[in-house]
Amino acid sequence: MREVDIRVQPIDLLGTLLPASRWETLRGEAAHARDLLAGRVVWNVSATAEGGGVAEMLHTLLSCARGAGVDARWWVLDGDPEFFAITKRIHNALHGAAGDGNPLGAAEHAHYEGVLEHNLAELTNLVRPGDLVLLHDPQTAGLVDAIRAAGAQVVWRCHIGRDTSNPTTDRGWAFLKRYLQHAEAVVFSRRAYVPKWVAPERIWVIAPSIDPFSAKNRDLDDCEISAVLDRAGLVGSGGGPPSGAVRFTARDGSVRGVRRHTGLMAGPPLPSSARLVVQVSRWDRLKDMGGVLSAFAELVVTVTSDVHLVLAGPDVSGVSDDPEGAEVLAECRAGWSRLPEPTRQRCHLVSIPMDDVDENAVIVNALQRHATVIVQKSIQEGFGLTVTEAMWKSRPVLASAVGGIQEQIVDGEEGLLLPDPHDLPGFARRLLTLLDDPVEAQQMGLRAHRRVREHFLGDRHLIQYLELFADLVAHAPAGPRGRGARWSSGQPRHGHLTREPRRRMGAGPCG
Question: Fewer C-beta neighbours within 10 Å, C or N terminus of the chain?
Fold first, then answer.
């Protein structure tokens, strides 16, 4: 295992975006957190520290927690390729997808447990009685019992799921069930994702959030956007001189510049005057990059002249916990190469380097802000932070009506929803609707930004976790440091555990 360095971010920074009443509430809750968690460590364990929405969200939340005076720490698992192939299979199964089609039987359980046993030796030497441990996603579920035996209180946080179960989801949950029986709480992004065997008193529903000050989401002016995309070799400078360095602040506090890149996509840079349709996501079959490419090439190119498609994802060599990525990217490249030459010139596959995750974020930020329309045609989606990020940038979004995307977009208000993610003609029609009405598309983007500001910033997210921690501490058995003194024997657990967390600070329909 390895520890992830967490930079302290004062919560005052978030306060600059909040109405006065929300800021005062956050300050009060931060003081409560310092008192409640004094002497305790809040540990987080995940599969990777970069390359996905979970990692990005943890960087933000833990930075804010430390800024509020909470001792929050983060460790990342060590795993071999077979371990990550098994956990990717589980991930796909929880979304209802077959994945690689290989089994989840006794041999897979044995390998999964063996890898986690290797990680536990280090983790259990660090965790003390009374600490709180948040385990993220299927990769970590098998750690629950050993960490509880060390005296800590354990929460399993699942960032994925499917609204309706099927035999494939049942298969995925059957693999995990034995490991989760003794987790004191389980947290999901949507109530519909919770399997029926989880006891109601253990269920929490907490929607994700974004960091508006991160390199991926901070404001960029038009000159910065143009300069970043020019230096990345994605969009031409329009005949002007090459752009100068673009500076950004990295997570470690250092200030660096965007490097000059070549070869991030095949062919020449995009014309600076082109309207862009952009999807940013991992190279994952459930994100359906290939479906977006087919719909655009067959149904949109023929009726537009200045619109280009960009499918952008991470350099697959830099994402350790997703063995499927290279296969999906290769499939997309093969489909792209078969397109007629004029169509191929308007469809672009971009692999953004991961050797500097902050620079990667700046490039994604500029690409999203340069987009005319952002799409997310996922087959399944746990929540869809790429949608939240696009909405924050005031861009109209066309996305599938699946999973957590439905929590974010009201169809026709903040964007357009595609009822059936497999409906390529329907996708093309909705995309052309946005392209043909730029005034309404702009208004949708403004409404989208407002919705994120009201519902999906970190204050709501942090306070919901604090409510969870307060409940765990109140109901902990008395320990060696007098913990659990607030618990009264025989009293029922707080009623809000049996429903979605209380609506506080504009949490909205997601919690």
Answer: N
pLDDT digits (tens, 9 = 90+) for 455-493: 999 999 999 999 999 999 998 876 544 333 222 222 223
Q: What is the enclosing helix (H) or strand (E) of 389?
A: helix 385-392
**CA–CA distance, 327 with 316 (Å, rounded to integer):** 9
3 state DSSP class of 18: coil
Cα 131 to Cα 149, 154, 203, 228, 303: the distances in Å are 12, 9, 20, 43, 60
> According to the 3-state scheme, what is the secondary structure of 228-267?
HHHHCCCECCCCCCCCCCCEEECCCCCEEECCCCCCCECC
Could you tell me the end-to-end alpha-carbon distance of the chain, in angstroms, rounded to an integer?
33
- The encoded tokens of residue 62 equal 């833990």
What is the residue-averaged pLDDT of the chain?
A: 90
Nearest alpha carbon to residue 117 among 81, 142, 90: 142
The DSSP bridge partners found for residue 157 are: 136, 187
Give CA–CA dist 345/340, Å, rounded. 9
Decide: helix, strand or coil at residue 476: coil
Stated pTM of the model: 0.88
CB 90 within 8 A of CB 161: no
Give the C-alpha separation, 351 to 333, whole Å: 11
Burial class, 78, CB count within 10 angstroms (exposed 0-12 / middle 13-18 / buried 19+) = middle
Tokens of 305: 């002249």
Q: Are 286 and 382 in contact (CB under 8 A)?
A: no
* Structural domains of the chain ordered from first start: 2-209+457-484+491-504 (3.40.50.2000), 272-455 (3.40.50.2000)
Name the one residue in this structure whose structure tokens are 């657990």.
493
The secondary structure of 411-451 as a DSSP string is: BTTTEEEESSTT-HHHHHHHHHHHHH-HHHHHHHHHHHHHH
Sign of CA dihedral 27, 511, 443, 386: positive
Residue 299 one-letter amino acid:
L
pLDDT band, very low/low/confident/very high, at 241 (cuts 50, 70, 90) = low
Angle at 306 between CA 305 and CA 308, to 5 degrees: 110
- Residue spans of beta strands (DSSP E) within 145-239: 153-158, 185-188, 203-205
Q: Which residues contact 122 (CB under 8 A, 6 or more apart)?
A: 1
The burial of 197, by beta-carbon neighbours within 10 Å (0-12 exposed, 13-18 middle, 19 or more buried), is given as: exposed
